[in-house]
Amino acid sequence: MKKYIILGLLSIGLYSCDSWLDVKSDQEVYEESMFEESRGYYTALNGLYILMSEGTLYGTNLSYGAMEAWSRSYDLDNGNLTTFTDLANLRYRNSGPTDLGKAIWLRCYKVIAEANNLIQNLEADKDVIFKYGDVTRNMVLGEAYAIRSLMHFEIVRIFTKAPVIDQGGVTATVPYVTEFPSHVNPPVPTKDILEFVIKELEAARELVKPFDLDDKYPGSISYQDRNVDRRLKLEVAGEITVNHANEEFFRYRADRLGYYPITQLLARVCLYAGDKDKAYEYANEIVEMVNTQTVYDFTAPGFIGNPEIAASTVHPRLHEEIIFGVYNSKLSDLTEYYFGKNVTTNRLRIKDPNDLFDNPNDVRLKAIVDRMPTKFSLAGSNEADMKRASTTVPVMRIPEAYYIAAECIFDKDKAKALEIFHKALEKRLNQVYNLPENVDKERFMDALVEEYRREFLCEGQLIYLYKRLNIPMRISGGVFVHDGKLVMPVPDTESGIE
Predict the structure, then answer these.
(1) Which CATH number fits domain 301-476: 1.25.40.900, 1.10.3720.10, 2.40.50.100, 1.10.10.10?
(2) Reported pTM
(3) Residue 473 three-state SS
(4) Distance between CA 133 and CA 149 in Å, rounded?
(5) Model confidence over 186-225: pLDDT tens digits?
């Protein structure tokens, strides 16, 4: 097993080529040995998650870093984070944003290339034996498809015009890549890429479904142990042992791109593409699952607050709600640069939390200390007591499903929309914002946007909300009009990977 781990790490760290998309996997050198057995596919799949967890993607840029700075959530007036300042002011051609865009672009396509390599090998290999046979084979294949789709979607959201200002996405800006190696890839209209991504995610969801939902297979064990009510009862009883699958690779399925995360990702993509009916269908499936506490649930209000005061009883990342997150064992080193207690010049501070959270009873306000978000600031806390706070980056959390479902059903069933929306407010002790039964669409959307701002602070999602709806960014004391310019330029196609 050590040999496969070493080969996997080599494939992540060493690569080069002469063209931006002619991405050759270093696994190609080792394919004869790496893909001989099922564990080689496991190593390759784990490698995709490792790539996504790096600072270039979700480890920093696609979460609390560049994407959040782009949405102007931070006070960047200190002038020490010029790349973020230029990005927030839409100065994309300055060197910082240019290099940033290139890094994100290349890393996304690197993950896509590695996913394509895994998919092609697995689809062609009919002899490799997996425990549980085709059920496990399909699970691995489904996850690889989902990862490939997620990376294409991130590229679309960052580097193309929003469908709302592009006739649904008619402009061809970025490629959609499904072959390895890939040499010629012309840009594809955004609407076509979104259609491909949705179809692929729907297929991926069916591929992973038996492994994750059927009690005969290990995926269901992880989801059973993800049940918040069960875990809290174990903690109260002084029992912290949970059941796991015997095989290490099959553990912690609930944190990977399994059935439920793919379902919520489908809701996110369908909404961005403008298909509200499908978006509601997928989002409401998550809402109904959460309402019955089958697996996930909202973090209890008493577990949201300041870890400097009560480290052992606070869950800064709201880990019960993370439906998909990435693991990075060095994450605290990355966050320390921006949020560390010994950092003064590079701190990322929220502009005006009291303006955003004008309800003092909102429990999320208690999780912001000195304009610092405790989601990623570990100052004054005991990391061991903060559960997953030191290693996990939330990519999707369940409140988003409630917001998507409420938005998508509002025009057809206002009462249902308000029921879903108010349920989320209740979980944050924020009922002061409950809307009247006769609320109009404009007032509802205004309240929804404000909830996105409060809920996903420092998670990199606000910029896509402003872009999808083509509305000005909301900042303390006013708005910032972007005129539809929330599109990072596609990097020079002649630039090589370095």
Answers:
(1) 1.25.40.900
(2) 0.90
(3) strand
(4) 25
(5) 999 999 999 999 999 999 999 999 999 998 888 877 776 6
